[in-house]
Amino acid sequence: MEINILYTKFERFWHWTQMALVVILLITGFEIHGNIQLFGFDFAVRLHNTSAWAFIGLTALTIFWMFAVGHWRNYMPTRKNFREQIRYYTSGILKNEPSPHADKTFDNKFNPLQRIVYLGLIILAFPAQIITGLLYMYFRYPGNPIDGTMLRNVAITHTVIAFLVIVFLIIHLYMTTTGKKVTTHVKEMITGVSDHAITEKQELTQQISDK
Ligand code: HEM
User: Fold this and answer.
1) What does the domain layout of the chain look like in residue ranges?
2) I need a labelling partner for 138 at 20 to 30 A (CA). Which of 23, 82, 153, 178 fits?
3) What's the whole-model pTM score?
4) Does CATH place domain 9-210 in 1.20.950.20?
């Protein structure tokens, strides 16, 4: 039996820092949008811009890290267990059946649906949010090459993605509670270690079935 390490220190640092930044960006973003009042408009703009730069830095660092250590492989879509996973989320989970991806390991920690959603966030939603955010930051004054309708579209895209991020967060938060115990998955992301050890046999089976 050996300890089943799931997340390195860097992954946990990245995950929790990203979460804090996204929450700050959402709150300040919706204050700028006019939906809530918390910090006051000027401070919300400053906080949004500063957190946006931190978010850009963290995203760049993480993408570099993923390629440097080969971690990108965890995010590659797979058809293996795809239908089983959908069946699990639409019925098995309600009957307390075990997840088809219960034996997660360091190199295969996400189920097929998680892979698609996380990949979509990393290569579509976040880059689009960063690009529209930068356009907003530098070209929002009249007379710039992208003022008028184009700037309106930039603003709308930025806001639509913000709503999608909220939808993701709600589903993601719910999913964190669906482990063996309500706190199992959150504990894993804090300690980095799965609460069940893996046997050498399990690891070998995993490696063979991945090939
Ligand atoms: C998950 C990440 C983010 C979320 C949820 C988010 C959300 C929002 C929202 C809801 C608004 C208000 C839009 C409007 O009223 O039209 C906004 C404004 C803005 N965002 Fe973001 N944002 C994020 C990331 C970024 C990034 C990476 C940048 C990069 C520079 C950025 C730059 C801006 C700017 C410049 C504004 C306008 C501020 C102003 O009017 O002075 N945002 N954001």
Assistant:
1) 9-210
2) 23
3) 0.88
4) yes
